Amino acid sequence: MLAHLPQSFDNLNLPLRLRLWDGKQYDLGPSPRVTLVVKDPTLIAQLSHPGLDTLGGAYVEGRIDLEGSMRDVIEVGDALSQAVLGDDVSAEPEHQAHDKEVDAAAISYHYDLSNDFYALWLDPDMVYSCAYFPQGDETLAQAQQAKLRHICRKLRLQPGDKLLDVGCGWGGLSRFAAREFGAQVLGITLSKEQLQLARQRVKDDGLEGQVNLEFMDYRDLPQQGQFDKIVSVGMFEHVGLANLPLYCSCLYGALKPGGLILNHGITSKFTDGRPVGRGAGDFIGQYVFPHGELPHVATMTSLLSETGLEVVDIESLRLHYARTLAMWSERLERQLDRASKLVPDQALRIWRLYLAGCSYGFAHNWVNIHQILATRPYPDGGHDLPWSRVDIYR
After folding, report:
1. Contact 16/73 with Cβ under 8 angstroms?
2. Which CATH topology does 100-393 take?
3. Which domain of life is it from (predicted)?
């Protein structure tokens, strides 16, 4: 057995070097691409069970440092965890209680970090959701514009349509829908930092007569069916599994008969919604998205249908999100000096792991992301959708 190290590390063949607090180094395989620097001797006992939450938490808390590209760090960390733990399966999740205060605090924790920090690695419109690469060679900015257009075309937006943008972020989609498609938009968010910048961008674009952005919880939406179209991008992951029926009901009540809803969000690999194994989901829940829960796409389509909506189209963008996250991660890695001046060290460590790790997770089918298009049929069962999708891609 290697001195100081758990017996489970014997005979591992990984491109990983361990450097201990006393300067001793151990290579666990030839040509190490990653060096794990153990700064806290008490961590050695925990390395006998190297879950991704254990490794990630130790890095965030400064108990270890990591040397090497973040892409290699994630790949080698997963290989280490799998070699020792095998394909660990997470327990069935316990649904968490969500109320307005809990959700507002969780949103503020993640999104109110620093507008300038997000601007370092997002596209110019600061679209913080999966981009769309119709050809595969688009830049990040091109792919985000393509995503916004893809959404608006799926919604068959027309000039004068009243569009509700649930979780409007920095307002990129709201402004795009108004500017490019002539929609009248109400965007809602629970992030005060996002709202302030989004309103300024609406003003700068001269869209104040078309775009109204408000600090509002989805549970407070008017239920008089006043919107022609509704879009929700990257928001329902924060709702909580127990509250998804209420979420769907609130969207249904806000939509006119004949109207369309597009729900774009991350979905679980497992039908019961449990997080991915070996602690990756637990790390995200603790450090990145408090109280976030992912439903399976079958759960979401079932709940939309139970509400009275008709699901008419589903598209997976899993590999698109793997590429988006990889681009975000690469852009952040190039700006670490500037980023370190905008957010605390612990936050920067979280985001470095999160972006690179999520790209890896989407690429390896740990999670998925789906755009679900649904309509509220007229009382006679009819709707206004065309007979094919050709208009979306024309």
Report:
1. no
2. Rossmann fold (3.40.50)
3. Bacteria
